[in-house]
Amino acid sequence: MAESKSWQDGNAKTITFIVTKDCQLACKYCYLVGKNEKERMSWDVAKKAIDYILDSGTGNKDQSVIWDFIGGEPFLEIDLIDRICDYIKVELYRRNHHWFNSYRFSFSTNGINYDSEKVQRFIAKNKNHLSVGITIDGTKTKHDLNRIWKDPQEERGSYDDVVRNIPLWLEQFPFAGTKVTISSADIPYIKESVIHLYSLGIHEVNINVVFENVWKEGDDVIFENQLTELADVIINDGWYKDYNCSFFSEDIGKPMDSRYENQNWCGAGKMLAVDAAGNFYPCTRFAQYSLREKDAWIIGNVKDGIDQNKIRPFLALDRCTQSSEECINCEVASGCAWCQGENYDAASTPTVYQRATAICKMHKARVRANNYYWNKLFNKLEKEGLREEFEKNKKPSNPDIC
Q1: Which residue, 154, 275, 277, 324, is most buried by CB atoms nearer than 10 A?
Q2: What is the 3-state secondary structure of the chain?
């Protein structure tokens, strides 16, 4: 979600509660391969996690904190979440903690029960410290292709159940963005889907391809064609003036200078996640329900605390320690993202130092389309004498969402 991504310019500790591993949907591209109805966080585990984090000083060096809630679908556990958030607020005040009044409660939801009485009451109570993103994938065709109900009897899409809540969501969070996921099957619907989301009033379309190795021969060609066609529509119809699509960014497609740009893409190890069993992880992608091939990477638990030695491998992660020479020397390396959990899951050994490169062709296709977009846009603005005004008023780019 764009709002939580940019909040405090990244100087916030992210602490994630996996409150449930259940969801109403069974999205075909979902990386959560172990979703189930049984693993639900208890109040006892949640309270112990909060107490440990505040007692141990975890994240004390960070000026702010994002308390993140995920599932499955987090709003299935709205009663627990409400209790957790109330306790956090009371404890931050009681302890005179520097996070008091410098925090966000963050949610990414499928939007199905967004308009329920309990969810709306929670939003009203926490509105000034809340970031909520609803996932809607685009047109009904694209959305329903992957985001289907968890019903073994029929493959029924969820678009109609989500889109009805978009007006209420945008009324409450007018600057919120949606997160769109692209997999092999839905590449042909990118152009029409982004424009459709704009037409719904969503100004920030944060969109990325899945990191898993699902890509087929020729997908990159279709992908590039869709993005160049999308570029034409955005520029010709003037959408660029008020709407953003994260596929287009001035910050991607350049060589990387490892002397100055050798940071890790992902925040795994600096973040913290806790699940229903009370286990701590360096990121939710290292919990067992997120992994296809590897065992969970547990770094501690609410009873014994965090084992710093199990975090140590993440502290040495940067672009060079996990990338091949080909990636390091790539002429369009900037903006090529990775997921640390997928790196671990796809690696030939249990390591976080082997970068997965399944999106290589897709990134290069994106760069070519991105160059087309900016060349066309700047030529248009130069001819109209509007280049300087555009540069002055444009928003900071948000090239990828992790």
Answers
A1: 275
A2: CHHHHHHHHHCEEEEEEECECCCCECCCCCCCCCCCCCCECCHHHHHHHHHHHHHHCCCCCCCEEEEEEECCCHHHHHHHHHHHHHHHHHHHHHCCCCCCCCEEEEEEECCCCCCCHHHHHHHHHHHHHEEEEECCCCCHHHHHHHCEECCCCCCCECHHHHHCCHHHHHHHCCCCEEEEEECHHHHHHHHHHHHHHHHCCCCEEEEEECCCCCCCCCHHHHHHHHHHHHHHHHHHCCHHHCCEECCCCCCCCCCCCCCCCCCCCCCCCCCEEECCCCEEECCHHHCHHHCCCCCCCCCEECCCEECHHHHHHHHCCCHHHHCCHHHHCCCCCCCCCCCHHHHHHHCCCCCCCCCCCCCHHHHHHHHHHHHHHHHHHHHHHHHHCCHHHHHHHCCCCCCCCC
- Domain count within the chain: 2
Residue 330 and residue 387 in one domain = yes
User: Range of 385's domain?
Assistant: 175-265+319-402
31 — pLDDT class (breaks 50, 70, 90): very high
- For 51-84, the pLDDT digits (tens) are 999 999 998 899 999 999 999 999 999 999 999 9
Residues 335 and 349 reside in one and the same domain:
yes
Based on the domain organization, do 244 and 364 belong to the same domain? yes
